[in-house]
Amino acid sequence: MIFNKDTAEKTAELLLQINAIKLNPENPFTWASGWKSPIYCDNRLILSFPSIRNYVRDEFAKNIEKQFGKPDVIAGVATGAIGVGILVAESLGLPFVYVRPEPKKHGRQNQVEGFLQKGQNVVVVEDLISTGKSSLMAVEALRSEGANIKGMAAIFTYGFGVAEENFKEANIDLFTLSNYENLLDLAVQKQYITEDQQSTLLEWNESPSTWGQED
Predict the structure, then answer these.
(1) Which residue among 12, 195, 211, 215 is least enclosed by CB atoms within 10 Å?
(2) Vertex 211: Cα angle to 205 and 215 (nearest 5)
(3) pLDDT single digits (tens) 102-126
């Protein structure tokens, strides 16, 4: 669920402007999973544009507090959400921790890095939601440390049905600055894509794991 429509449209426009999101239905990208995709999203680019990263920071800070109440800690999911998570924590005057994909193999073997006390209220910041599996693994790591997860806030979601199911099963409320639906509407409006290309992008979103495969 998006925080609000205005933020969703503005965020989508900014991501397109800096090529953090690229739309190419005719020459699709290949994801690490092997899926063929007409869209590629790299929200790390936000950090290289001060005015845009400040916008993302401020929208996160304002809407996180409005939606979840002020938490005790902000947690970022490594690696994509560490930078923006720190910005949000700084804006709210809160401690920050981050979650590795898996525990370190040496030293203290931490998966959650930083100071976290049992029972603290945590909002998790993520950069991108696809199926939601890696994001929810971070949630489970935090819960295993005794954290009370208030919810998750992400920059963008592809809006896959499987992600909605995964978050519902994990009992985690997810809010995003923007989403696939608002992105495509804005992309057509601003002539980044045609209506025919929008149809192709919508088809992919309905069945991303099989889209573009030869019969």
Answers:
(1) 215
(2) 155
(3) 887 676 678 999 999 999 999 999 9
